[in-house]
C-alpha cells in the first residue's frame, strides 16, 4: 500500500520558466502596501494565466491578496464559456475575489481600439469596487516589441516607440522582460491549460500581422535578438521622454502666463529652446489648459508663430485659437472653431 506521502498529489516542480515568472511578479507585488489587493487582468490565455499563477503563489507570501477580473467582450459566440473557464482557473489558483465583467465593444478606432478602451474601463471600475492597489496586466516582451514596431509605422514620435510603461497609474506590467514562449512554458510546467484566442491568429488585425509575419522575418534576416532589441529601444525612448517631460514641466512654469480666456507662452522663451522642448511646451499648454491633443502638423504650425513669423494670422486648433501678439503666443478658447489642419 502506498504511503500517505506517496499518495499525496505532486506539486509542480519549480522550473526556470516558473521561477522567472514568479520572480518578476514578486518584484512588482513587493512595491504594494502590506495587506492590499492586486487584481490580475485574466483572459485565460497563456500570458495572463502564467501571471495569475505567479500572483496566486507570491501574494500570500508577501502579506498581500490577489484576485482576478475577467473581461468578456462578447465578440465570440463562446465568450461567456471562455470567461467562466478562466474564472474557474483563477479560483483553483487561489485568487479571490474573482469577477467576470461583461462589456460592449463600440466606439471609434476599430474593434481593437474599442475593445481595449472597454477592457481598461472595466478593469478600473473593478479596481475601485474592490479597493485594489493595482491591476496586473500580462503583457510580455514580445508584446512590447510589437508595440514599438506599430509605433514606428505610425511615425508618432518618441512616445509611440516608448512602448508600454511597466507602471502606469493603477496598472502594472510585471512580465515586460519575459518572452511569450517562456510564459507558455510556465503554464505547461504547472499543468495549466491556457485558452487560445482565435483573434490572435486573425491577420485582419495589424498587431497579428506584425506578430506572425514581420517580427519572424526580422529575426530571420536581421538578428535573432531583434525582439529584445526593440524592447530595449522602448525602455531608452521612455527614459528620454520622461526626462524631457520633466524639463518641460519646469520650463512651462517660467514661460506660461494667464491670458483673457486662456494662457500664453513668450515668443522669446519658445525660440530659445530646442525644438523637442518647444513642441512639448505647445502640446502641454493645449492639453493641460484645453484638454485637446494635437498632431505634429498642428504643433509645427503653432511653433512657426514664434520661429518663422511673417505676420501670419491665427492658427485654429480643435476648440483653440492661437495667435501672436506683443511678443506672446496666446492660446484662447474658441469652441466654434473648426480646425484647418488635418490630423496626421
Compute the average pLDDT: 88
N- to C-terminal distance:
74 Å
Structural class: alpha/beta
Range of strand content? 5-15%
How does CATH name the architecture of the largest domain?
A: 3-Layer(aba) Sandwich
- How many β-strands, per DSSP? 11
Largest sheet: 6 strands, mixed
What is the third-level CATH name, the topology of the largest domain? Rossmann fold
> H/E order of the elements?
HHEHEHEHEHHEEHHHEEHHHEEE
The oligomerization state is single chain
Number of helices: 13
**How large, in whole angstroms, is the Cα Rg?**
24 Å
| Uncertain residue ranges | 1-9, 337-344
Could you give me the name of the CATH homologous superfamily of the largest domain?
HUPs
Strand order of the largest sheet: 3-2-1-4-6-5
Helix content: 40-55%
Give a short overview.
With 344 residues, this protein is α/β, with parallel strands linked by helices.
Describe this structure as you would to a colleague:
It is a single chain. By secondary structure, the protein is α/β, with parallel strands linked by helices. It has helices at residues 4-7, 16-29, 46-61, 79-92, 110-130, 141-154, 158-161, 180-189, 206-221, 226-255, 267-272, 275-290, 296-307; strands at residues 37-41, 65-72, 98-102, 134-136, 167-168, 171-172, 256-259, 262-266, 315-317, 320-325, 328-333. It folds into two domains: 9-234, Rossmann fold (3-Layer(aba) Sandwich), CATH 3.40.50.620; 260-333, Uridine Diphospho-n-acetylenolpyruvylglucosamine Reductase, domain 3 (2-Layer Sandwich). The strands form two sheets. The chain has a six-stranded mixed beta sheet with strand order 3-2-1-4-6-5, with helices on both faces. A five-stranded antiparallel beta sheet has the order 7-8-11-10-9. 51% of the residues lie in helices and 14% in strands. The model is unreliable at 1-9 and 337-344 (pLDDT under 50). The protein is elongated and about 70 Å long. It is built from 13 helices and eleven strands.
Amino acid at each position: 500500500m502506498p504511503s500517505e506521502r506517496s499518495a499525496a498529489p505532486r506539486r509542480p516542480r519549480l522550473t526556470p520558466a516558473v521561477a522567472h515568472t514568479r520572480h518578476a511578479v514578486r518584484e512588482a507585488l513587493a512595491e504594494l502596501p502590506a495587506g492590499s489587493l492586486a487584481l490580475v487582468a485574466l483572459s485565460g490565455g497563456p500570458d495572463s494565466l502564467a501571471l495569475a499563477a505567479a500572483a496566486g503563489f507570491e501574494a500570500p507570501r508577501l502579506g498581500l491578496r490577489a484576485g482576478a477580473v475577467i473581461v468578456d467582450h462578447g465578440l465570440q459566440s463562446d465568450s461567456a464559456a471562455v470567461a467562466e473557464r478562466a474564472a474557474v482557473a483563477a479560483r483553483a489558483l487561489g485568487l479571490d475575489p474573482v469577477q467576470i465583467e461583461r462589456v460592449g465593444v463600440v466606439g471609434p478606432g476599430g474593434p481593437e481600439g474599442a475593445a481595449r478602451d472597454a477592457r481598461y474601463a472595466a478593469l478600473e471600475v473593478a479596481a475601485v469596487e474592490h479597493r485594489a492597489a493595482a491591476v496586473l496586466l500580462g503583457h510580455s516582451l514580445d508584446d512590447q516589441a510589437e508595440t514599438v514596431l506599430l509605433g514606428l509605422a505610425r511615425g508618432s514620435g518618441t512616445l509611440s516607440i516608448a512602448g508600454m510603461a511597466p507602471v502606469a497609474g493603477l496598472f502594472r506590467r510585471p512580465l515586460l522582460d519575459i518572452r511569450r514562449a517562456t510564459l507558455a512554458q510556465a503554464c505547461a510546467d504547472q499543468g495549466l491549460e491556457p485558452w487560445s484566442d482565435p483573434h490572435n491568429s486573425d491577420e485582419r488585425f495589424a498587431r497579428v500581422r506584425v506578430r506572425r509575419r514581420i517580427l519572424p522575418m526580422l529575426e530571420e534576416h536581421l538578428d535573432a535578438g531583434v525582439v529584445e532589441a526593440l524592447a530595449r529601444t522602448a525602455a531608452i525612448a521612455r527614459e528620454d521622454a520622461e526626462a524631457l517631460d520633466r524639463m518641460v514641466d519646469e520650463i512651462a512654469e517660467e514661460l506660461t502666463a494667464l491670458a483673457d480666456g486662456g494662457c500664453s507662452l513668450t515668443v522669446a522663451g519658445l525660440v530659445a529652446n530646442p525644438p523637442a522642448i518647444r513642441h512639448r511646451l505647445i502640446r502641454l499648454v493645449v492639453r493641460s489648459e484645453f484638454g485637446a491633443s494635437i498632431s505634429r502638423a498642428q504643433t509645427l504650425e503653432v511653433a512657426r508663430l514664434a520661429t518663422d513669423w511673417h505676420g501670419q494670422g491665427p492658427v485654429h486648433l480643435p476648440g483653440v485659437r492661437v495667435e501672436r501678439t506683443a511678443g506672446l503666443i496666446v492660446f484662447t478658447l474658441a469652441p466654434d472653431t473648426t480646425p484647418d489642419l488635418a490630423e496626421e
